[in-house]
Design a protein that fits this description.
This protein has about 350 residues and is an alpha/beta fold. The protein has 13 helices and 12 strands.
Length: about 350
C-alpha cells in the first residue's frame, strides 16, 4: 500500500474537469488498496500568480498527519507542480494558457503598458514552468497529445501521453432519446455559441438540445437562444450533479462537444462509456484525438453548417447513433484506472 497525495490547484468557486479527474484518481487509488487524498493548492488571480507558485513550493507534503511518510505525489496543473517531493510525477492538465497558446487572444486587447507588464510576467512564468517540469518532477505525463505538443513548442519539455479514464460513476445507456446533450463550462473557448448557431441552421430544424453547465457566458447564451428563436428547443440546465449528468448521458441521442483546442475534454470519455457518440470539431484538441470520425462519432469543421449536418445525421438515423455509440463504448474499454495507476506510481 502506498500513500499518495494528488495535488491540483483550485480556482475559487469553480469545478473544472481536472478536479473531477483528481477525485477520480483518488477514488481509484483507494479502491486499489492505496491511501490517497486530494490537496488543493491556490491558483490566485492575474498579478498574484507568483504568490501561488511560492505558496505551493513551500507546502509540506513529506508526512501525513500521523507522522508517516507520503510515498508519491501526482500533480495536475499550474502551479500545483511546484510542490516538492522526491517521488513526484506531473499528470499535466495545462499550464497557464493565457501565457502560452492563448497569448495572442489574451494580450491583444491590452494597453501597451499592460502588455509590457504581462510580457514580463509571461517570461517569468515560462522560466518557472520549465524549471519545475524538468527539475522538480521525475516524469511528466500529458493528458492528451494537444498538451504534449504545447510542452514541446513552449519549453521543449519531454512527456508521455496518458489519457485519464472516466471517473468511477455508474454510467449506463438507457436508449437513444430525442435530444442532443452538451456538458461544458460556459466560456468562450468551449464554443457553446457555435452549437446554438448550428441549431438555428435550417438543416437542424426541430432538433432539441439540453446544455448543462455554468460560467461567464450564461446570460449571453440565454439571450442568444431568444434571439435565434430556440427557446422551445434548447434548455440551459445550469450546473448539474453527478446523478443528473449520468442520467442525461444515459438518455440523450448523442453528445456535442466542440471546444477550441481543448486540453483533454473528460466528457468525451464519459459519453463513450455511456454508449453515446460524440460530435466534435477538427480543431477541438483532445476530443478530436479520441473521436475517430464515423467510428465513435463525427468530427466536422467548426462552422454552423457542418455541425448542423452532423446533428441531422444522428437525429434522423437511430441505427447510426447506436452503431457509433457501440464503437465508442468499445474504445472506452482501453482507458482504465487499472492500467493508469501503475504508470503514475512507477519508480
Amino acid at each position: 500500500m502506498a500513500r499518495v497525495a494528488v495535488v491540483t490547484s483550485d480556482p475559487l468557486f469553480a469545478q473544472g474537469g481536472h478536479l473531477v479527474i483528481a477525485d477520480g484518481l483518488t477514488t481509484a487509488l483507494c479502491a486499489a488498496g492505496h491511501d490517497a487524498t486530494v490537496i488543493r493548492t491556490p491558483q490566485n488571480r492575474f498579478g498574484r500568480q507568483g504568490a501561488a507558485y511560492l505558496a505551493t513550493w513551500l507546502t509540506d507534503v513529506g508526512l501525513t498527519h500521523d507522522g508517516k511518510p507520503v510515498d508519491h505525489v501526482v500533480s495536475f496543473r499550474f502551479p500545483s507542480y511546484a510542490i516538492r517531493h522526491p517521488s513526484h510525477v506531473c499528470w499535466l492538465n495545462h499550464r497557464m494558457r493565457e501565457y502560452y497558446d492563448q497569448w495572442p487572444r489574451f494580450s491583444g486587447p491590452l494597453s501597451w503598458r499592460a502588455r509590457v507588464k504581462e510580457r514580463l510576467r509571461r517570461r517569468v512564468i515560462h522560466a518557472a514552468d520549465r524549471y519545475l517540469l524538468t527539475r522538480n518532477v521525475r516524469r511528466v505525463f500529458a493528458q492528451s497529445r494537444t498538451i504534449q505538443r504545447r510542452l514541446e513548442r513552449w519549453g521543449s519539455i519531454p512527456s508521455e501521453v496518458l489519457y485519464p479514464p472516466p471517473p468511477p460513476r455508474p454510467y449506463r445507456c438507457d436508449g437513444y432519446g430525442d435530444y442532443l446533450f452538451v456538458a461544458s463550462r460556459l466560456s468562450p473557448l468551449k464554443r457553446v455559441d457555435l452549437v446554438l448557431e448550428a441549431l438555428a441552421h435550417p438543416v437542424a430544424g426541430g432538433i432539441r438540445c439540453v446544455i448543462a453547465g455554468d460560467g461567464e457566458e450564461c446570460e449571453t447564451l440565454r439571450s442568444r437562444i431568444n434571439t435565434l428563436g430556440l427557446g422551445e428547443r434548447v434548455r440551459l440546465a445550469g450546473s448539474v450533479g453527478d446523478t443528473e449528468l449520468v442520467e442525461h448521458l444515459a438518455r440523450c441521442r448523442a453528445v456535442c462537444y466542440p471546444p477550441r483546442a481543448e486540453d483533454y475534454g473528460l466528457v468525451t470519455l464519459e459519453a463513450f462509456v455511456s454508449r453515446k457518440a460524440v460530435i466534435t470539431c477538427v480543431d477541438s484538441g483532445g476530443p478530436a484525438e479520441l473521436v475517430r470520425s464515423d467510428e465513435e462519432g463525427l468530427v466536422v469543421e467548426p462552422d454552423p453548417a457542418s455541425l448542423a449536418h452532423a446533428f441531422r445525421q444522428v437525429t434522423d438515423d437511430t441505427a447510426l447513433a447506436e452503431r457509433l455509440g457501440a464503437a465508442a463504448q468499445a474504445r472506452a474499454a482501453a482507458f482504465t484506472w487499472d492500467r493508469t495507476i501503475p504508470r503514475l506510481l512507477a519508480r
